[in-house]
Amino acid sequence: MTMPRFHLAFPVDDLTRARAFYGGLLGCAEGRSSESWVDFDFHGHQIVAHLAPDEVGRAATNAVDGDNVPVRHFGLILAWDQWEALADSLKQADTDFIIEPHTRFKGQPGEQATMFFLDPAGNALEFKAFRDEADIFAK
């Protein structure tokens, strides 16, 4: 059975900066596009940056294990080594993390590596990893 893929559309205020961030920094291949949107291959999932400057910049947060996590965010669960490689690459690119790469819920069910950063339009992204995928939904 083929695994379902998700589709996510989100607002940006500059497609050139979105292309540099998603295509350049994160290495997402570009798909279809127009003057007002661009598709990216987000590890097999389709994300679409839509030019919508009036929708950019909302930043509510909730507390999670001592961090102020942006309520509106998206990202991927990577293999641990992929997560470490991405964290290293983002640090080398002088990424301004809103939550630095670290391990959350240490010694508890659901222990995970996590990091948060913003795209150029202020959309929050979280990339995380579990040493054991069985812990993804652990209580």
Attribute tags:
2 helices; 2,3-Dihydroxybiphenyl 1,2-Dioxygenase, domain 1; alpha+beta; globular; 4-stranded mixed beta sheet; single chain; 139 residues
Note down, in words, how this protein is organized.
The model has no long low-confidence stretch (mean pLDDT 93). The protein is globular, with a radius of gyration of 15 Å. It is α+β, with helices and mostly antiparallel strands and 139 residues long. The longest helix has 13 residues, at 80-92. 17% of the residues lie in helices and 42% in strands. It has 2 domains: 7-52, 2-Layer Sandwich (Signal recognition particle alu RNA binding heterodimer, srp9/1), CATH 3.30.720; 61-135, 2,3-Dihydroxybiphenyl 1,2-Dioxygenase, domain 1. The strands form 3 sheets. A 4-stranded mixed beta sheet has the order 1-4-3-2, covered by helices on one side. Strands 7-10-9-8 form a 4-stranded mixed beta sheet. The protein has a two-stranded antiparallel sheet with strand order 5-6. The chain has 2 helices and 10 strands. Keywords: Dioxygenase, Oxidoreductase. Residues 4-130 form the VOC domain.
Q: Which regions have little confidence, pLDDT < 50, spanning 5+ residues?
A: none
Structural class: alpha+beta
Distance between the termini: 28 Å
Provide the succession of SSEs.
EHEEEEEEHEEE
CATH class of the largest domain: Alpha Beta
Give me the number of helical elements. Answer: 2
CA radius of gyration is 15 Å
Question: Which architecture of the largest domain would the CATH scheme give at its second level?
Answer: Roll
The averaged pLDDT comes out at: 93
Instruction: Enumerate the strands of the largest sheet in spatial order, edge to edge or round the barrel.
Output: 1-4-3-2
Q: What would the principal axes of the Cα set say about the shape?
A: globular
Domain VOC: 4-130
Protein name: Probable dioxygenase
GO molecular function: dioxygenase activity
InterPro entries: Glyas_Bleomycin-R_OHBP_Dase (IPR029068), Glyas_Fos-R_dOase_dom (IPR004360), VOC_core (IPR037523)
